[in-house]
Amino acid sequence: MSHPTTRLDDTIHQRARLGILAVLAESRRADFNYLRGALELTDGNLSRHLKVLEDAGYVRIEKTFEAKRPRTWASATRRGRDAFAAEIGALRALIERLDGTEATAKGKTVVQ
Amino acid sequence: MSHPTTRLDDTIHQRARLGILAVLAESRRADFNYLRGALELTDGNLSRHLKVLEDAGYVRIEKTFEAKRPRTWASATRRGRDAFAAEIGALRALIERLDGTEATAKGKTVVQ
Fewest C-beta in 10 Å: which of A18, B67, B73, B100? Predict the structure, then answer.
């Protein structure tokens, strides 16, 4: 059986992008300032990672005006939610594997 | 409270490196060929990521000869095990947060 980490998707697994999709999994949409604060990212970092997710078809970006001030909203696409669910599934499998082996496999030498 | 993803360490969070440390958490040491097969990496990729982990002080590399054939062994240092445990703790927190909010927060608009 493949190791659970082989199922991780580099596009989503990256720390900031995982955070963005985690926030968007909890909400219909989130605005740029909220994401920046919640994930402790700089403007430039957040923009860059949103762009990667948008290019992958995982996130939709929408610009609105409220009281003449521009706001940028991000939401997860269906594809983004599916990819995020797959990532969380792989992380769950990794953790379950560690929990299962922790007690028995210590000290074993792994040899092919 | 900070989002759990802000606690992820870029050195360890990377897919291949997370896999290496996960295998090493389950064993005293693992040889290069075993890691390459288990994690489905190329020689070049595995070497590169082992080097990053070695430079960070998370992994120790040891070369031995058996029946005149060289073998490369990797093992996690104490520091590597601690950093891996912190990563798994952050991933657990992320998953618990998702499990806790899934039922209630759908459709919420996140605004600061």
Answer: B67
CATH for the stretch B4-98? 1.10.10.10
- Quote the pTM value: 0.85
**Per-residue model confidence as pLDDT tens digits over B12-56:** 999 999 999 999 998 999 999 999 999 999 999 999 999 999 999
Please tell me which of the candidates B28, B33, B38 has its beta carbon nearest to residue A109. B28
Structure token pair of residue A37? 């604060």
Q: Would you state the pLDDT for residue A67?
A: 86
d(C-alpha A76, C-alpha B72), whole Å: 43
For residues A50-88, one letter each, b for 16 or more C-beta atoms within 10 angstroms of the residue's C-beta and e for the rest, the string is bebbeebebbeeeeeeeeeeeebbbbbbeebeebbeebb
Cβ <8 Å between A110 and B27: yes
How is chain A split into domains, by residue range? Answer: 4-95
Q: What is A4-95's CATH number?
A: 1.10.10.10
Residue A101 has pLDDT above 70, yes or no: no
Contact residues of A toward B, CB < 8 A:
2-6, 8, 10, 13-16, 18-19, 22-23, 25-31, 33-34, 37-40, 88, 91-92, 94-95, 97-98, 101-102, 105-112
Task: Output the pLDDT for position B76.
Answer: 98
Distances (CA, A) of A55 to A15, A43, A48: 17, 18, 11
> ipTM score here?
0.84
Tell me the C-alpha distance between A51 and A68, whole Å.
Answer: 25
